[in-house]
Every structure is written in C-alpha cells, then in structure tokens.
Amino acid sequence: SLSPAPTDRQNSKSLSLWAGGQAAMESPTSAASRVDFYGFLDRMRRPEAADLFRSIKSFLASLSLDEPSAEADGARVQAFFAEMEAAIRGHPLWADATHQEIDHALEGLEKYIMTKLFDRTFAASPEDAAADAEVSDKIGLLQRFVRPHHLDIPKVLNNEASWLIAVKELQKINSFKSPWEKLLCMMSCCQVINNLLLNVSMTNDRTPSGADEFLPILIYITIKASFLL
C-alpha cells in the first residue's frame, strides 16, 4: 500500500529540502528562469496544492514497487505527465496563469519527477552501464590523436578560448538530472559555437557559417568534453 498522504507541513518541508539541494548546483538557466521555477515550487507548497503533491508522491511510490523497465517506465512517466498537465491547467492555483507560467510549471514538474527517478532512469541496467563505458573508451582513444584539422575545421575558426567555454558548458550536463536541464547545457554549448562562427564571419568578412562548419566544431568539443568528464 502507498504511504499516507503528506500533511501540508510535510509537503512544504519536502519541497524545501529538495529545492535547497538544487540551488547548491550552478544552474544553466537564466536568473529569470530560476525565479519562475521557484515560483512553481512556491505554489506547490500551498495547502491548495496538496492534491497535486499527493498525486506526485503516489506516482513515485507506485513506480518504485515495480522492476525498472526503460520502455514501460517511459510510457508510465509520459502518461503521468499528460495527466498532470491537464490537472495543472484546470487547477485553481493556475486559473489565471499565462501560457509561459504553465510551461514553467510543467518544466518544474519534469525536473522534480526526473530528479527523483534519476537512479532508475539513467544507466540503470548493467547493459546500459557497459554501453556507456564502451563509448567512453572509444572517445578516449579519439581524444588522444584527433585535432581540428582532422575534422577539416578552418584555422580561422581555431579559438581555444571559445572552445574551452563550450567544453565547460557541455560538461555541466552531469551536474543536472532532468532532461530539460541537460538539454539546456547542450543548447548553451551550441550557442557558444554559434557565437564564435558569427563573430568570425563578421570580423573576417566571411560568408556566414552553416552546418558544414558548425558540426565539426561540435564533434571536436564533444570529444574534448567527454574525455575530461
């Protein structure tokens, strides 16, 4: 049977402890996005949100009773997200919310759920762990000899300072547990590369770069970042 529903005080304490742990990590999001996310947590701490919090706790408890299965777990999580989206959109706490506020609430929900399910979701099986180790070994071999010219990266785009920033952005990916935050790390890395290409095209009177120059740099950055991780 499931655990008893938490009281409002337990609800608030649980969210506060979890939020504190998240705040200890450097966030890849903007300050405005962090404010919006904590706004979602503030709403979830209110007594009126007790029904939503009970649903979340019940779902996590029920999932923990079954053996991990990537396919089955994925389907159940997606179905739960769909149910919770409908519940949030129809909830009095979000009655006057904008589309952006609803989106932030759903992002906050995903972050909370996937953080709780991280150990069950990522490399949970021995097969996944073995596959990750194999890929890591191969990337380590590539890192020993691959240089920019091997990927046909023009010398004018060789910018170690910008590449290091991109590497650091990508390396943040292991500091976060939700798919949304991991995706933001990847987007930040890509933005650094895109800015480099744009700056070079403007200062050297070159035709704006496209995927033919973006992709090799991204591959090189990924090799360097993965090896250092």
UniProtKB/TrEMBL annotation:
- Residue ranges annotated for the VPS9 domain, each copy included: 129-229
Question: Some GO term, biological process aspect, for this entry: which one?
Answer: vesicle-mediated transport
Recorded hits in InterPro entries, A to Z, give: DUF5601 (IPR041545), VPS9 (IPR003123), Vps9-like (IPR045046), VPS9_dom_sf (IPR037191)
Example GO CC term: the record gives: cytosol
Q: What GO MF terms are annotated? A: guanyl-nucleotide exchange factor activity; small GTPase binding
Q: Which PANTHER family does the UniProt record give?
A: RAB GDP/GTP EXCHANGE FACTOR, VACUOLAR PROTEIN SORTING-ASSOCIATED PROTEIN 9A-LIKE ISOFORM X1
* Name used for this protein in its record: VPS9 domain-containing protein
Which species? Aegilops tauschii subsp. strangulata (Goatgrass)
